[in-house]
């Protein structure tokens, strides 16, 4: 830690040099790692997590580098079980494997991955395809936050690699209290969302939250999409966002798997 602080101090004196951006990345990495450790850290890597979200049941099995994300839907056909894993996507109807069109495979895979991704945040922000940038400190609702920008490499970043996220990580306890993101809508417009965490609770050593999900009440006047994203915290404080939905995980169950060295 002492070495890190000295390096950061030196970099600040070299304004305009390449070391500044590198140090921003190092500081962002440090803050994100603290935030991940606060919610359970490596326990997520060896776990089976189940929960209900809206009218569906979800199950995530993570065993170090292997993963299997499942979604269960009850409809007139019976039980539809969608499975996304290292091997790809499969759909089962009443335990029978069915063929799915390639276009729908992409759609279903993105939908399943999105729910499991948000359910475990900030775990996942240390993936190889993730890029982190420290944007400085910000005041929001009377508290001080580390403001971190997240982008993704095209390789390994998934279909939505062009999405950009901003995280507000509490400077005192390293909780992710707010996050925002921009994404490409079906009509190629840029969508903006801002989420406020609430109902933070711990289940078998892992921390989960629910979110109030907001969008801007009016168009944000800016030529640059990143600028629009970065000011969403100010829009939130000024009551310029409208509540779109609530992201609530229910009936959470966590089973921690034994680690390889145990």
How would you summarize what this structure contains?
The protein is an alpha+beta fold and 262 residues long.
Give the tags:
single chain; alpha+beta; outer membrane lipoprotein receptor (LolB), chain A; seven-stranded antiparallel β-sheet; 14 strands; 46% strand; disordered N terminus; DUF6503 family protein
- On the 0-100 scale, what is the average pLDDT? 88
| Poorly predicted parts | 1-21
CA radius of gyration: 20 Å
**What global shape is seen?**
globular
Euclidean distance between termini CA atoms: 29 Å
Query: What's the number of helices?
Result: 5
CATH class: Mainly Beta
Give the topology string: H per helix, E per strand: HHEEEEEEHEEEEEEHHEE
**Biggest beta-sheet profile:** 7 strands, antiparallel
Query: Which second-level CATH architecture applies?
Result: Clam
Strand residues, percent: over 45%
Pfam families: DUF6503
InterPro entries: DUF6503
Organism: Geojedonia litorea
Protein name: DUF6503 family protein
């Amino acid at each position: 830690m002492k070495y890190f602080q000295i390096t950061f101090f030196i970099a600040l004196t070299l304004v305009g040099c390449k070391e500044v951006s590198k140090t921003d990345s190092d500081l962002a990495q440090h803050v994100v790692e603290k935030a991940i450790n606060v919610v359970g850290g490596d326990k997520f890597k060896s776990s089976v997590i189940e929960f209900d979200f809206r009218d569906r049941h979800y199950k995530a099995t993570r065993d170090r580098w292997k993963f299997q994300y499942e979604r269960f839907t009850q409809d007139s056909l019976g039980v539809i079980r969608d499975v996304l894993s290292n091997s790809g996507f499969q759909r089962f109807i009443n335990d029978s494997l069915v063929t799915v069109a390639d276009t729908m495979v992409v759609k279903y895979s993105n939908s399943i991955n999105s729910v499991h991704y948000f359910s475990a945040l900030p775990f996942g922000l240390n993936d190889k395809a993730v890029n982190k940038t420290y944007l400085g400190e910000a005041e929001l609702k009377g508290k001080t936050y580390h403001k971190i920008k997240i982008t993704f490499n095209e390789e390994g970043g998934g279909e939505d690699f062009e999405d950009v996220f901003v995280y507000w990580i509490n400077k005192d306890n390293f909780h992710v209290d707010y996050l925002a993101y921009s994404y490409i809508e079906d009509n190629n417009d840029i969508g903006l969302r801002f989420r406020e965490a609430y109902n933070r609770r711990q289940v078998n050593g892992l921390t989960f939250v629910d979110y109030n999900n907001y969008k801007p009440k009016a168009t944000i006047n800016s030529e640059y999409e990143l600028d629009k994203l970065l000011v969403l915290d100010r829009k939130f404080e000024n009551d310029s966002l409208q509540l779109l939905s609530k992201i609530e995980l229910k009936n959470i169950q966590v089973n921690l798997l034994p680690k390889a060295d145990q």
